[in-house]
Amino acid sequence: MPKLFYESDGDFSVLAGRKIAIIGYGSQGHAHALSLKDSGANVTIGVRPGSDGWRRAESHGWAPQSPVDAVQGADVIGLFVPDHIQRSVWEAVVAPALRPGTTVLFAHGFCIHFGQIVPPADVNVIMVAPKGPGHLVRRLYNEGAGVPALIAVYQDATGDARATALAWAIGIGSARAGLIETSFREETETDLFGEQAVLCGGTTELIKAGFETLVEAGYAPEVAYFECLHEVKLIVDLLYEGGMDWMRYSISDTAEYGDLTRGPRVINAASRAAMKEILVEIQSGQFAREFVMENQTGRSTMKMLRERAARHQIEQVGGELRSMMPFVSQARKNAEEAR
Fold first, then answer.
1. Which H or E element spans position 159?
2. By three-state DSSP, how is residue 306 classified?
3. Quick one: pLDDT band at residue 93, thresholds 50, 70, 90?
4. Which of 8, 32, 306, 326 makes a 20 to 30 Å CA pair with 291?
5. Is the pTM of this model over 0.70?
6. Between vectors from CA 265 to CA 259 and to CA 269, what angle results, nearest 5°?
7. How many whole angstroms separate alpha carbon 167 and alpha carbon 61?
8. Alpha helices, DSSP H, located in the chain
């Protein structure tokens, strides 16, 4: 098992007196910025003037600057813009501002690992990747807890790159929960695989397939929605709290028997073969090239698939049912406002 690092393994004062520029104020950007500031770091926000991020930063009490202005004289630059625009922001904003010994921090290794960004040899390149969305990183920080994170060093030009990553992780609260040291390659490939095969792609397709099976068999769409989507959170919470054993302990014997005997018929040899194909596509760079090309050509496929997904019956039924559950709508509203 990899060694876990905690607050006692690092020193937040490593960031003392250093100007930190955070470029981008979305999900992760806002959480890192606010938590680092509350921990005592000197943080400047760089975001496009007039954008939603600019207005959000102002509403949080910042005096944001343009990205070009924000990175001037920065000792540590955190790049928190989406993967598909990181390269252009790097070339236009970050690269011209780099000095020997500057540290550049990422929350995901995509652009470094797949060569979209090639940093000069005289700068530090590190990663702090919380294993949770930004609004959760921020909420747990405020509660005195934290979201576990992965840390990595891609380049150590000054000898203190790892210490800087640990200090940053302490500043956002992740070191309270635990840190695992990894590589840009491992973080990137496992993160993409988890998203595509399990957390997002696998889960949403499984939910839709279950919903469609029940509706096609004549059951009410509303009942199918509750059984195949709404209750997922209840099961996931149990998995989160105590793993599969705790989940199975908490459900009925009928549900547990069905889980153990029928689950392998759904996720079977064909499913596992598809997962292996997906992993090979990630490892070879095929997915990265496809994603980069998709963004360079106007995102036509992504837009079409988004529209098709939004028209699915499960979204229509779900929207109506969630509107009758104010506590669910409020949770989404709170998360959107936190971003």
1. none
2. helix
3. very high
4. 32
5. yes
6. 130
7. 24
8. 27-39, 52-59, 67-70, 83-89, 95-97, 110-113, 134-142, 161-171, 174-177, 184-193, 201-216, 221-225, 232-250, 253-266, 269-284, 286-296, 300-310, 313-323, 326-338
